[in-house]
Amino acid sequence: MSSLTHFDAEGRAVMVDVSAKDETDRIATARGQVRMEPATLTRIMDRAVEKGDVLAIARLAGIMASKRTAELIPLCHPIPLNSVTVDLVCRPEDSLVEITATCRTKGRTGVEMEALTAVSVAALTVYDMCKAVDRGMTIGDIRLTHKSGGKSGPYENR
């Protein structure tokens, strides 16, 4: 049985022991989107949503969520993050907001879950702030697009 498993010898769930792993610079980027009616996107771009600046609040929510990933995802390690960026770009041609989050740390385990959590919560925040005018929004295509650092090596999925 691999030492990097979420199960002990009796098959019970446990947090993986990463103490023997080397500390390395680790970076992960995730991306996702919120698709909406064109009029909803126009309101976001014009900062005409009654609840406030959707993009600024979603950015902050994503950053805050990344720092709490271990509280949200069972068996996920608490990781000291060195930096988190969350970028939201309006794409009028596709009637969506594209969200990209990058997390960085120097540690023994990666930050993929932190980046994915940041994107997910930022997307949910966009939905929450705009649901009064567009309940048909869809959140999707959330995926890891880049990972570096660690034993498994780099990963790219643009």
Automatic annotation (TrEMBL):
Enzyme Commission number: 4.6.1.17
Similarity-based family: Belongs to the MoaC family.
Pathway named in the protein's UniProt entry: Cofactor biosynthesis; molybdopterin biosynthesis
Source superkingdom: Bacteria
UniProt keywords, alphabetically: Lyase, Molybdenum cofactor biosynthesis
Binding site for substrate: L75, C76, H77, M113, E114
Positions of the catalytic residues: D128
UniProt KW GTP-binding keyword: no
Oligomeric and partner information: Homohexamer; trimer of dimers.
GO BP annotation list: Mo-molybdopterin cofactor biosynthetic process
Name under which the protein is recorded: Cyclic pyranopterin monophosphate synthase
Any one Pfam family match given in the protein's UniProt record, by short name: MoaC
Record-linked HAMAP family: MoaC_B
Catalysis performed (reactions): (8S)-3',8-cyclo-7,8-dihydroguanosine 5'-triphosphate = cyclic pyranopterin phosphate + diphosphate
Classification via InterPro entries: MoaC, MoaC_bact/euk, MoaC_sf, MoCo_biosynth_MoaA/MoaC, Mopterin_CF_biosynth-C_dom
Organism: Stella humosa
Gene Ontology molecular function terms on file: cyclic pyranopterin monophosphate synthase activity
NCBIfam families, per the entry: moaC, PRK09364.1
Function: Catalyzes the conversion of (8S)-3',8-cyclo-7,8-dihydroguanosine 5'-triphosphate to cyclic pyranopterin monophosphate (cPMP).
Enzyme class: lyase
Domain Molybdopterin cofactor biosynthesis C (MoaC): 15-150
